[in-house]
Design brief:
With about 210 residues, the chain is α+β, with helices and mostly antiparallel strands. It has a single domain (about 1-214), classed as outer membrane lipoprotein receptor (LolB), chain A (Clam), CATH 2.50.20.10. Helix content is about 20%, strand content about 45%. The chain is built from four helices and twelve strands, in the order H-E-H-E-E-E-E-E-E-H-H-E-E-E-E-E. The chain has helices at about 1-15, 35-50, 125-130, 135-145; strands spanning about 30, 55-65, 70-80, 85-90, 95-105, 105-110, 115-120, 155-160, 165-170, 175-180, 190-195, 200-214. The chain has a twelve-stranded antiparallel sheet with strand order 1-8-9-10-11-12-2-3-4-5-6-7. Strand 11 and strand 12 form a beta hairpin. The chain starts with a helix and ends with a strand. The model is unreliable at about 10-35 (pLDDT under 50).
Length: about 210
């Protein structure tokens, strides 16, 4: 497992964490007050519709910074329901598979490229221990789609004219959405920026491909 951590750290040292190659330019409209009727209604509908999304897949890149350390990796995340997914972590330089994380119910398994497997009941704890990654996976499965997590209260939200979040504050994190795949109230994010200032953690997710199924 040490070689995976070293490869990710080296990629970050090469400056790949800051990569922002976006599939499409930003399409966010001017920010409006969340209490404005039209935007608020669209926001409520977005949450209702996306809560019914049974399956989705996100392919892209992730840059992660924890204090003075940084990582970068390719990501292929296939979600099936709320508690079952397979996440492939790939070398950002070669695209080679470095590790696979699978969750089915209460069991989480991490399989490294050398064939070794590690298990835990908590995915965030498993990634932090084995890969030195601090990612809020439980909430990120919702934040990645541009909706709040049902597991914590929303502290603040700012919406654009389509009722999509431009900024979401929840569970101690600030999540910014600089751009979406296209116009429309139900467009998916093409770039996400996350920060937890209290722990000096920053992350960037650049979505290159989305697939969804209701």
């Amino acid at each position: 497992m040490k070689q995976i951590y070293l490869a990710l750290a080296c990629a970050g040292a090469l400056g790949l964490v800051g990569c922002t190659n976006q599939p499409k330019p930003a399409t966010s409209a001017a920010v409006v007050n969340p209490t404005a009727g039209g935007a608020q209604a669209a926001w409520a509908e977005r949450q209702r519709v996306f809560a019914q999304m049974q399956q989705w897949q996100l392919k892209g890149r992730v840059g992660l910074q924890l204090r003075e350390q940084s990582w970068s990796f390719g990501l292929d995340w296939a979600q099936r329901g709320n508690s079952q997914y397979e996440m492939q972590i790939k070398n950002p330089l070669t695209g080679g598979l470095m590790a696979t994380v699978m969750e089915t119910g209460s069991q989480v398994t991490l399989k490294a490229s050398d064939g070794k497997t590690y298990q835990d009941t908590d995915a965030e704890r498993l990634l932090a221990k084995q890969l030195k990654m601090n990612l809020p996976l439980k909430n990120l499965q919702y934040w990645a789609r541009g909706i709040p997590s049902p597991m914590a209260a929303v502290d603040d939200v700012k919406l654009d004219a389509y009722g999509r979040p431009t900024r979401l504050q929840q569970a101690g994190w600030v999540i910014d959405y600089p751009s979406y795949e296209g116009n429309g109230a139900q467009a998916l994010p093409s770039k996400i920026q996350l920060e937890k200032a209290s722990e000096r953690i920053k992350a960037k997710v650049v979505a290159k491909e989305w697939k969804t199924r209701f």
